[in-house]
Amino acid sequence: MRVGFIGLGRMGQGMAGRILEAGHELRVFDQLPQNMQQLHAAGALIADSIAQVSDMGDVVISMLPHDDALDAVVNGPGGLVGSMPANTVHMAMGTHSVEQINVVNQAHTGAGQTFIAAPVLGRPDLAAKGELSIVPAGPADAVEKMQPLYDAMSKQTFRAGEQPQASAAVKIANNFMLGSAIESMGEAFSLVRKLGVEPELFFEVMMKGLFGAPAFKIYGPMIVAQEWDSHGATAVIGLKDADLVVAAAESAEMSVPSVHIWREHLLKAIERGEGHLDWAVMAREQARQSGLE
Fold first, then answer.
1. Residue ranges, the chain, pLDDT below 50
2. Residue 181: what pLDDT?
3. Is 171 considered catalytic here?
């Protein structure tokens, strides 16, 4: 396939690399020229503008950090709405609000263009290995056409129907559950530490009992060792995810009390200058409030 790719942060680098390795023709664009150099050395073409990257023919993938960036790429001067050919698909793979996904979908539909929302589940190390999970939603024929790209980037695909907002809802809800899992671990580890239990022992009980799942396997050791260097989402990104949960819940006219707890812990960590650390640092904030640090 002929693929344009916009947004080459840590996730985008790995995803674009997998597409290139799978033999697809790739043209990339990023606001930071240095982010394109490694892929260019591997065989990707470099675009000088959004309009140039959108002229690839099959699909333009965006992997952008927030709603404002997506809106600028789609609706801004020289954006996809004004430059993308009608036979090209835009597939947004970043984490975005339900509201923004609906705005983008309406803009593309109004321009006679096709839009798919296909957020990914996983960390940058999994992106580099092609082991993400992808949740696409959009016109069925367009989603089907993208399967070779899903195969290159992921280990599994969960099709969420024809309404792009459905995939955004799945991604936001998944991040809500993950944030809640990290928060609950932070509270549980603080509790056992306060009562004289070694956290390593409690972690073993977790893994050999009811909680031997990836979320606990990945973040539990970070909390036990109190090592907060970011290998995935930072506290700043985690706060964005919390805000997306709150916004989605408001649009659904419902309450999600748990998110406010870990959102507050992330805010405190960011206020302490720890926004660059892994969002598991919310567990450190719980330890501080428990008098352990």
1. none
2. 97
3. yes
Q: What is the pLDDT of residue 238?
A: 96
Q: What angle do CA 243, 247, 252 make, to 5 degrees?
A: 145
Residue 50's H or E segment, with its range, is helix 50-53
Q: What is the dihedral of CA 178, 6, 2, 153, to 10 degrees?
A: -20
Pairing outcome for strands 120-121 and 132-134: antiparallel
Helix/strand/coil (H/E/C) assignment for every residue in 7-41: CCCHHHHHHHHHHHHCCCEEEEECCCCHHHHHHHH
Alpha-carbon span 194 to 163, nearest angstrom: 48
Q: For domain 2-162, is the CATH number 3.30.200.20?
A: no
What CA–CA distance (Å, rounded) separates 183 from 84? Answer: 42
Fold category of 168-289 in CATH? N-(1-d-carboxylethyl)-l-norvaline Dehydrogenase; domain 2 (1.10.1040)
Amino acid present at 4: G
**Of 171, 208, 217, 240, which is the active-site residue?**
171
What are the structural domain ranges in the chain?
2-162, 168-289
pLDDT value for 187: 97
- Cα 208 to Cα 186, 198, 213, 224, 282: the distances in Å are 19, 16, 10, 16, 24
